[in-house]
Write a structure and sequence with these properties.
The complex is a heterodimer of chains A (269) and B (177). Chain A is mostly beta strands and 269 residues long. Chain A is built from 1 helix and 12 strands. The chains are: A mainly beta (269), B alpha+beta (177).
């Protein structure tokens, strides 16, 4: 915890120079370049309370920059979180529309609207509503991102509504709506000066995610520090650890390790 | 009179045929990292009149070297930067001049476009000159507010030598070489 706090302090105390917004747990308001396609392999490792019962979720994702305003993500989910064996769980689609850009040298302020829908075949047993493999549902919200040289700060706020999973009624949930808020900080630590596109980039992130269920008033606040390596300006490896800071929500897990691999293809077509 | 007209015609034709962008310096706004810079670089590479591109990632500057004789289209450069998700902060074209006489509000006809020099004074241009594009989208919104006055109030753009209406009129500032 002390390490997390000092990491955060480092991030906050360097509000002066250039930034990164390729967040691991949230999305920035900026879009992908038009006609580009990206592939992400998201791996979530969750240590279980019971020994030998660790959980793993695999989430491959395809990202597509339709035009300069609009992008889409398509996700597939598979895990052993709700069944003893590794099973296919479902799919989701995410759309983001960038509607505001105020750009200046090494700076921008951008805003975007997003919408997401998911169709999942898992039993509904926990209070947390998420469209990352556990719930069928839809959500919509707003993202605002400020880039200040090496520092990026992003806010996401939205509403998520759960519907019945393919074989589990939504009535099993204490609350079917959830307000979500997150605040993310990203900082480009390396290189100090670029030599070329092949320079390895290292970014540090601290993300805070909050959910509040309506009407049950269950909530949580998570922190997710992350380190990101970018190779050849198109391949990304992210390592993150997400854990609960405070909350009273019944969740399948209060901590997870994230390993994400990403490859981007510019001018894919 | 006929002689003068002929001289003027020859002069106009020589300007329009010899005028050629040799390179341009593009500064993009809204980015810091090399991944964003590469996104712009890859888009610019798609332009058929671009021969090669030099970079300074730290300052988000791209030097575009153009193919000889190819028609350079500034609007397409701007479009590519915006397609990558960013904006043009400044675009400066490099044009060689050989004994070209310019007046106030000089109009340079180049291929299908007209370049209106909003600050030109009667002089003879010799050597490589820089022209800075000042239309909306070619400078930051902040700079555009300051430069707006220069590009407004000059609606009588003369036609190009073929007497056709230019496809596009760009407002530019002539910079000292």
């Amino acid at each position: 915890m002390r390490i997390l706090l000092s990491l955060l302090l480092v991030l906050l105390s360097t509000v002066i120079s250039k930034g990164q917004e390729l967040f691991v747990s949230t999305e920035p308001a900026s879009n992908m370049p038009s006609h580009s396609i990206g592939v992400r392999l998201n791996n979530y490792f969750m240590p279980s309370y019971k020994e030998g019962d660790n959980m793993f979720r695999f989430n491959p994702q395809i990202m597509w920059g339709i035009n300069k305003y609009l992008m889409v993500h398509y996700n597939l989910f598979a895990s052993n979180m709700h069944q003893s064996s590794f099973n296919f769980e479902g799919q989701s689609i995410y759309l983001k529309y960038r509607f505001l850009s105020v750009d200046n040298p090494h700076r921008h302020f951008r805003m975007a609207l997003y919408g997401k829908g998911s169709m999942i075949n898992n039993p509904l047993r926990y209070s947390e509503i998420n469209l990352y493999g556990d719930n069928s549902g839809y959500s919509a919200g707003l993202v605002a991102t400020q880039l200040l040289h090496k520092l990026a700060i992003s806010y996401t706020g939205g509403l998520t509504k759960a519907i019945s999973n393919l074989h589990s009624e939504v009535g099993l949930l204490k609350a079917s709506s959830s307000l979500n808020n997150s605040l993310s900080f990203g900082y480009l630590v390396y290189p100090k000066k670029y030599k070329g596109y092949n320079d390895v980039n290292i970014n540090l992130y601290a993300e805070f995610m909050n959910k509040f269920n309506i009407p049950s008033k269950e909530y949580f606040l998570d922190i997710a520090p992350a380190i990101q390596f970018i190779f050849k300006s198109k391949m990304i490896i992210d390592l993150s650890y997400r854990r609960l800071i405070t909350g009273n929500m019944a969740r399948i897990n209060n901590q997870e390790y994230i390993l994400r691999l990403e490859y981007n293809l510019f001018n894919a077509y | 009179m006929k002689k003068i007209f002929l001289i003027i015609l020859v002069l106009i034709i020589s300007v329009s045929s010899k005028a050629q962008f040799i390179k341009a310096e593009l500064k993009a706004n809204g980015l810091t990292c090399s991944m964003c810079s590469l996104a712009i670089h890859k888009k610019l590479q798609k332009l058929d009149f671009v021969d090669s591109i030099g970079n300074n990632i730290d300052s988000s500057i791209f030097i575009l070297y153009f193919k000889k004789g190819a028609e350079v289209n500034a609007d397409l450069i701007k479009q590519k930067v915006e397609d990558a998700g960013f904006f043009v902060g400044s675009l400066i074209g490099f044009i060689p001049f050989q004994n070209i006489k310019v007046d106030m509000d000089y109009h340079l006809s180049y291929k299908s476009a007209l370049y209106h020099f909003v600050n030109s004074k009667p002089s003879v241009l010799n050597g490589i000159y820089k022209i800075k594009f000042i239309d909306k989208g070619y400078v930051s919104d902040k700079d555009y507010k300051k430069l707006k006055k220069l590009s407004q109030g000059h609606s009588n753009h003369q036609p190009n030598p073929n007497n056709t209406i230019p496809d596009k009129v760009y407002h530019v500032i002539l910079m000292t070489p």
